[in-house]
Each structure stands twice: as C-alpha cells, then as structure tokens.
Amino acid sequence: MSSPSFTSLPPEVITLIASHLNQHDRAQCLRLSRKWSDFFTQLLWQDVHVDSRFHNSIWLGYLLHNKHRIRDLQLTDPHGTHLLALSQRGEGSLRSLTASFQDEAASFLTRMDTPGPWTTADYLSEQAANFGNTRALELILTRNWNLRSLTMDESCFRNKDGGDAFSTIMAVCPITRLERLELRFGRNPNRPDPPADAQQGPDSFVMADVVAALGDRRELGGLFGFFDVLKELVISGGHCHIDYHRLGFLLRCPNLKRIRLEDIDAIAVASLSVAMGLSCPKLSHLVWKGPPVGQDRDIAILLAASPSGWKEISLPDLKNFGTQSFASLMRRVSTTLEVLKVGDWGHTEEDDFLEFLCSARNLRRLEGLADGEFSGLQKQFTLSAYGALYGYTHVERLDLSWALGSSMEFLQLRIVEVPRPDVVHYRFGDPMALPEDLPEDLDDSLRFKVQRWIYTQLGRLTGLQELVLGVIDLDPEELSKRGFSKDTDPNSIELEEALCHVYPTFNYHTLEFSLESGLELLAGLKKLKVLDVRLTAHRIGVEELDWMHVNWPRLKTIRGLDSKREWAGKAEPGLAVKDAVDAWMADHPDGIGSYYSGIK
C-alpha cells in the first residue's frame, strides 16, 4: 500500500501546513507539479502587499491576472492601486483591506516600465486629472462587499485637490459583513488648530458642535445603511483634534461593542465621548493607549461615555488617573465591570482601592502593569491590610468585606502594611536598613489577625486561577538609567538599596503564606494554577507545599518560591529551608498540585 501524497490530504490540513511557509517557499512549491501549482497559486496570492514592486509591468500583469485570488490586501503604492481599482469588476473576494499612501501618483502610466494592454480602455474612461488615491479606494470598496476588516489613514480621506473625502469614503464602505474598522486620522490642513485654552479639555462649545453635527446626520443610516455587524472600532491620531463633522458615521454603528483609542488628544476625547454616548448604546469594551499626559477629567469623561456601562476597560499607560476618573469608574463598577487593566493609578488614594474591592461585584480580572513595563513612579493597585482591618474594627464596624467573589479568575495587587515581627533584616549577618517608605510602627500583636482578615477575603475567590502579589519586574531602560544591566538579579540587595527612594523592589510587610498565619483559610481555591509571590517576604516551606499539594490540586507553579531568605534572618537557616524546598520541588517536576502527580 503506497503512502498518501501531500495533495491527497484534507484541504484544511494542507492549508495548516502551508501556512508555516514563507512566500519564497510557496513560490518554489509551484514548480513541483500541476496539482501543487494549482493549490499554491491560490495560497501565494491570498495575502498581497501592493508596493513599488508593481511598477514593473510583468509583476503588475501577475497581480491583475490573480486579483480574484486575493483575500488580504495592503495598499501603499498609488500606481498599482489605481490599476487594480480600474481592472476590478466586483469580485467581492477581499476579507481584509489596509490602505495608506505616502503620495499621489501624477500619472501612473509614466511610472511603469511598459504599460500593458489592460490599462488602455479603463484608464481612458477616467479623467487622469481627477483620478487619485481616494477615487481608486472608492472603486475597490464598492466592489468588495464581503470585506470583514478595513484599515484606512488620513491619506485615504483627501481628494487629489486636497478636499475632505471622508464622508464619501464612509458612504461607500461595505456594511454587510464588516466587523472591524480602523481609522488613523491625521491633521486637517484646511482647519486651524483650536485655541490653546481649548486644548486643555472638553469645553462646552465642542460638545455643542458635536451634538449639532450628529443631529444634522441622523438620516445617514437611512441613506447608506447601518454597519449592523460592526463590533470593533479603532481610532488613532488626529493631531490637535478629530474634526467633529467626521463623527456622524457613528450613528450608523448601533451594534458597536469595542472601541480602541490611541494617541488622541483632549478635544478628540470630548468629541468622541459625546458622539459615542448618543450613537452607540451597546458599547462595552474600551482600550485607551496614550497620550500618557491625558488629564484626569478627560479620562473621567471617556469612562462615562458608554450608555450601558463598560464591561472591560484597559488604560495601560495613562499617568493622570485621579479623583474624577475614579469617581466615574465607580459609578458602574458594581453593575457592569468585569475586566479592568490600569497601568498607572496616578493620583488615587489608598482608601480608593479598598472602596473598589468592596464594590466590584462582577469583576473577573484585575490587572496592572506587566513585567518589564514599570518605570518612573507608576502607581500600582495597592491595599493597606492594616488600614482595612482597622476600618472594620474601629470605624463603626463598617462592612469592608470585598465584593469580589467566585467569578474572579485573575487578581493582581500589592498588599502592604502587614505587621511582621518575624522579619529580621539582616544582610549576610549584618543589619540592613529598610526603605524609608515602609511603615515601622505597626502593632506587631496584630500580625496574624491582619493576615487572617485578608486570607478570609481571598478565600471567597473560589474561581481564582492566578493570584499575583509579587513585585513586577522593572523596565530594562529604568535599570539602565540607574547603572544596572537588564540581566541584574531582581533579588539583588544592591538593586534594592539603589531604588529604595524610588520604588520598593522588595515587599517586607505582606502576607507570609504560612500555615501559622492562616493559609488554611484559602483551602477553597481549588482552581488556582499560578501563585506569584516574587520579592515578597513569604514563608513557604515544605509544610506549606504539602498543604498546597492537597488543597490546591491545579497549582502548577509558584513564582518567587526560590529565596535565600536573607530578609528573614541570618543566611544559614534560610539556606536550609531553601534546600528542603528545592528537594521537594525536584520530587514534583510536573507541578505542585496533586493533579500533576499522575502526569508522565
């Protein structure tokens, strides 16, 4: 019995294998046989970038001959784009289109090596003086009704004479299946910059203009149809502002759920906030990246823009999150919010974090900075354990229990101000000074009471899969600025002392995760897979690992388990604990929990 050939495999298997080949290798496969040629010709032309290579008439001939095979198209060269637009007859084959042009082509025929016979009739049917990038893009859009994803920048929104063509382009956008739309705005050369004072925030005249512009365009949906399946919108750029007259298209996006904003200014934030609030009732997911100087009130206005409330919010690099932003966030936190990522909490107060934990009933994920992103003085989500217990026991016995529950899957926060008389600060036998910003006047007698209070709150998160309490890794550039290489040991005492006035690289007053301190209160975390206690004064030894093996069956790893315990006393007893832990881990190479015991 002969072995099956490559081309006899199911088409989906062939496609999966071929997807790992680069374009050169795919081209080589065309030569093997007719069957291989038929298959790889289709694959070779699925993803095409029309750039300056297609000034060559031979390459251009190949492009036009195989245009019906293209599924994902990127346009950056005007000449090839113009001819492709004129030669299409409505194939409807494109799934995704990205268009961005550096210049206009004065005459695409003069830039080709040898104009081909396919150009003559179609070229003459258009007036060369008026045919530009926008007109070419308009033709391509009208002939590809099957488009799922579309990306355009400012070069697509200007006629050849410099006039604004944004409304024209949006009017011909295919709406039947378009799921994702990305608009990269640039500066409008025909509109002056707003006054300097107007750039500081969302003044009332801007909001009034936006409302008026939207009101004038309420017939747009009836004229051009609605983007009924559009779920994701990405908007970036817009130097000084995005012209509010361009926001009328949002009225055609009634089912929009996700919006991603990048590097937009205060005026654009104000305009978009008003437009989204009036036009997009189903908005539930927000990502806003920069500019980092975005003001507190700008953030607050955007957080209030969703009519039904945000389910997911990601603010990875804003530095001015403050009282107004926090107040806006808290208005819906108890009803809709499920996922929150804030890279810098800026000017919030410690009490704000406790209030958040006591209100976020539907939260599934709470994330901060990722490893390698921290630099400067970014503020993390931080809970004062001592203060939380004090408020519960002394301030009219307020109920400060967390609202977080079994729906939580990922939790990242710093826990500080846990009295720890067990921590003896020695460095190789000599006393070591603590960073000045760590409290030293806590009531040591409350050591276990404070920890048990926090364990009780964490113990209610029975769906938790990852618990991150460790100190995140610093940005390599931050290390370099302070004379350390990117390979510097994060446990380095020298690093800690160098950064003690900037950021604590080690957390001493925190949970110790020992059975003595109340670890058994976390027995319900059966789904926990990852525990992160890097650079914290934990006391996880063999006894605790045995307990975790039984009670946390899915626990795969503990980040930060390895420690010389120089923070806890003289090196010798600490190293003995380390050796015992290393031996235990060597006996459980596949994971800590009992689930991994049977894995071979």
The DSSP helix count reads 20
Q: What's the overall average pLDDT, rounded?
A: 80
Strand content: 5-15%
Which percent range fits the helix content? 25-40%
Distance between the termini: 35 Å
Low-confidence stretches: 107-127, 196-205
Order of adjacent strands in the largest pleated sheet: 1-2-3-4-5-6-7-8-9-10-11-13-17-18-19
Radius of gyration: 30 Å
InterPro entries: F-box-like_dom_sf (IPR036047), F-box_dom (IPR001810), LRR_dom_sf (IPR032675)
Domain F-box: 3-48
Pfam families: F-box-like
Organism: Linnemannia elongata AG-77
Structural summary, described in words:
- The protein has 600 residues and is an alpha/beta fold.
- Among the domains are: 179-188 and 206-367, Alpha-Beta Horseshoe (Leucine-rich repeat, LRR (right-handed beta-alpha superhelix)), CATH 3.80.10.10; 380-471 and 506-594, no CATH class.
- The chain has 20 helices and 19 strands.
- The protein has helices at residues 11-18, 23-29, 34-44, 57-65, 78-87, 120-125, 133-142, 166-172, 204-215, 220-224, 266-279, 296-303, 323-330, 350-357, 385-394, 447-459, 476-481, 493-498, 542-551, 571-586; strands at 47-50, 72-75, 96-99, 149-153, 180-185, 232-237, 258-262, 285-289, 312-315, 339-342, 365-367, 382-384, 410-412, 414-416, 426-427, 430-431, 466-468, 530-532, 557-559.
- The strands form 3 sheets. Strands 1-2-3-4-5-6-7-8-9-10-11-13-17-18-19 form a 15-stranded parallel sheet.
- Strand 7 (258-262), helix 11 (266-279) and strand 8 (285-289) form a beta-alpha-beta unit.
- Helix 2 packs antiparallel against helix 3, helix 9 crosses helix 11 (266-279) and helix 12 packs parallel to helix 13 (323-330).
- The longest helix has 16 residues, at 571-586.
- The two termini are 35 Å apart.
- The model is unreliable at 107-127 and 196-205 (pLDDT under 50).
